[in-house]
Each structure stands twice: as C-alpha cells, then as structure tokens.
C-alpha cells in the first residue's frame, strides 16, 4: 500500500509543490481506511488556509463545450486577470471496470500548459451524478495551495448538476443552440439551480441561433417564478473560439459573488453546504462499513439464498442484515465518538 507523509504533504501544499499537491489529491481520493484517516489529518491541518477562492461549478448538456469553455475562460483569467486557476474535471467512470476517459487534459491543452494552472481529471467512480466523492476535499487542497479560482466541471448528466451546485458558490450552466427545442430536456429544477446561464458557440453561422436561444431561456427564467423581487439568472451568449462574451460571463459570476457577500448569503450558503457534506460523509461511511462488515457478510449470503427460494422477503432480509450490522457497529473506530 502506498505510503503518505502528512507533514511533507502539508509543507508541499503551502509551497505550491505541484507533485505534492497531486499526491495530496490522490490521498483524499483514496477509499482505503488507512488513507482516509491520513486524509482527515491532512484536511484538518490545511483547513485554516481554505475558503478564500471563487468556487464555480460548470455543467451543461452534452456537446455544450464545457471543457473548451473552461480552457478559453481559464486562459483569460490567468493572463488577463492574474488569477491562479484550478480545474477539477470529473470524468465518467465505467460502472464495470472503474475505468475513466480522463480526456479533459487534451481538451484543455492551452490552459494546462500555464504555470498558474492545475488541472486534475478525476474519475467519478460511479458516485451520484458523476461527481467524484472526493471533489470537495480536492477543492480544499487546491485552495490551500493558493489557487483563487476553482472550476468544477461535471459530466452534465443525471443529478450531477444538483451535486455540483451543493459544493460551489456560483453554478454556471452552459447550453448550446440548434439542438431542436431549446428548452426540451432542461428541467425546471435545473434552471432553478443556475446562477448564470451561457449559450456557447455563439459565433459564425450559429451566432444568431445562440441569441434566439438566449431570449427563449430568459423568458423561461421569468416563467419559473412570478416573484419579481427574486433574483433571476442572467442568460448570456459567448464563444470559446473567438472569446466574445467570455468577459461578460465572468463579470456575471463576479456580480453574483458580490451579491452573496453583500447580503451575507455566501457564509450562509457555505455553512449549509457543510451541513450537507456532513451527512453525505456519514452516509458514505455507514455504507462502506455496512458493505465491509464481516458480520454482515456472514449472513448476507444466507439471506440472498432465502430470497431466491422465496422463504424470506426483502423486508425481513433487510432486518436481518441491519440487525447483524447493529451488533457489530461498536467495533468500528468511529463507533463511540462524541461531538466533542
């Protein structure tokens, strides 16, 4: 098993050592129990250095050009606005083998080549919505390393939008024109999550279609809520190829961040995210403990066999398994910890 030195990793993070930053993210991504304990130590050590970055989630329909947009926007943020940019690009993983495409680095070649940029493709490993389990923790590592803009790209399918909106300050949704009905497939719940909406590929023959799509989406945003005092996500157009509109999109992100700060909502949002994160981690830990419990494994095969012969119902089987887990739960390291 790979060994990690927490002291060395913390020092490397604070000094901006790219190799040690990468090792730190590898540690927090690991699901091995010994590594998880070290990851917890690492996160506690760097916690005072986190929380100052712009956290922006980027999602959208397949084909909207998310990676190309991040490449163009990231280069602009580094070269024209002097930001240090980190990208967490969550790739789809095979449900059978766990393999991942990890092709984002090739689609972000210009951005990845810059010194003030850190691009980390992370396989989703089958977790909800394609968002990697350790994405939140990786974000903290990058913030502690001094990256002041963290962009989180998701695969844009299923519930990934919900997952990413729960870990960022601003949720940017990308849409593309000329996909049939512009509103088809965009659910109300997804529109309600968006803080900024951008129609991409607004160049050449597609520019007019993009503007039409933007008008339609702007109308849709008004229909979602009749409350005129409620903030509505601005709908903009941009081109990652020509760069047109990228400044306006980023200014919309900055405006949203400023509004959150002035109203005190940024702190409230992050506190709410911390509470959600707390319970997500509790569920993950319980699920892993349940899956690996020898007591559960001892009865699981018998329960499944009885299900096959219809001598036991699923409800009765669940009660047997949970009973075995309850008897074993105090043997786990976290079984007797208090909030103190």
From TrEMBL:
Q: Which gene encodes it?
A: meaB
Q: Which SUPFAM superfamilies match?
A: P-loop containing nucleoside triphosphate hydrolases
Q: What is its EC number?
A: 3.6.5.-
- Does the keyword Metal-binding feature in the UniProt annotation? no
- Signal peptide residue numbers: none
Recorded hits in Pfam families, A to Z, give: MeaB
What GO MF terms are annotated?
hydrolase activity
Q: Which family does it belong to?
A: Belongs to the SIMIBI class G3E GTPase family. ArgK/MeaB subfamily.
Q: What is this protein called?
A: Methylmalonyl Co-A mutase-associated GTPase MeaB
Q: Which InterPro entries match?
A: GTPase_ArgK, P-loop_NTPase
Q: Which PANTHER family match?
A: METHYLMALONIC ACIDURIA TYPE A PROTEIN, MITOCHONDRIAL, METHYLMALONYL-COA MUTASE
Keyword annotations: Hydrolase
- Asked if Hydrolase is a keyword of the record, the answer is yes
Which Gene3D superfamilies does the record associate with it?
1.10.287.130, 1.20.5.170, P-loop containing nucleotide triphosphate hydrolases
């Amino acid at each position: 098993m790979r060994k990690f030195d927490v002291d060395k990793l913390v020092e490397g993070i604070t000094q901006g050592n790219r190799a040690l930053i990468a090792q730190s993210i590898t540690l927090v991504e690991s699901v091995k129990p010994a590594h998880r304990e070290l990851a917890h130590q690492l996160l506690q050590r760097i916690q005072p250095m986190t929380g100052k970055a712009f956290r922006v989630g980027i999602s959208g329909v397949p084909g909207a050009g998310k990676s190309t947009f991040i490449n163009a926007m990231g280069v602009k943020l580094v070269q024209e606005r002097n930001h240090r940019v980190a990208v967490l690009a969550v790739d789809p993983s095979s449900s059978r083998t766990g393999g991942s495409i990890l092709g984002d680095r090739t689609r972000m070649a210009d951005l990845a080549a810059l010194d003030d940029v850190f691009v980390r493709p992370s396989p989703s490993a089958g977790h909800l919505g394609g968002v990697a389990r350790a994405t939140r923790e990786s974000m903290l590592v990058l913030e502690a390393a001094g990256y002041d803009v963290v962009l989180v790209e998701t695969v844009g399918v299923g519930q990934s939008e919900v997952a990413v909106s729960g870990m960022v300050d601003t949720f940017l949704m990308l849409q593309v024109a000329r996909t049939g009905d512009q509103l088809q497939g965009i659910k109300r719940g997804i529109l309600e999550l968006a803080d900024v909406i951008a129609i991409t590929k607004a160049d050449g023959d597609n520019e007019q279609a993009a503007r039409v799509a933007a008008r339609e989406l702007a109308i849709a945003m008004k229909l979602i809520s009749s409350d005129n005092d409620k903030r509505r996500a601005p709908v903009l157009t941009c081109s990652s190829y020509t760069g047109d509109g990228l400044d306006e999109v980023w200014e919309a992100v900055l405006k949203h961040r400023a509004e959150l700060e002035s109203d005190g909502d940024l702190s409230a949002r992050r506190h709410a995210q911390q509470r959600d994160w707390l319970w997500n981690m509790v569920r993950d830990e319980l699920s892993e403990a349940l899956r690996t419990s020898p007591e559960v494994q001892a009865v699981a095969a018998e329960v499944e066999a009885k299900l096959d012969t219809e001598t036991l119902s699923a409800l009765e089987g669940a009660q047997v398994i949970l009973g075995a887990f309850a008897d074993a739960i105090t043997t786990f390291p976290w079984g007797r910890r208090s909030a103190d």
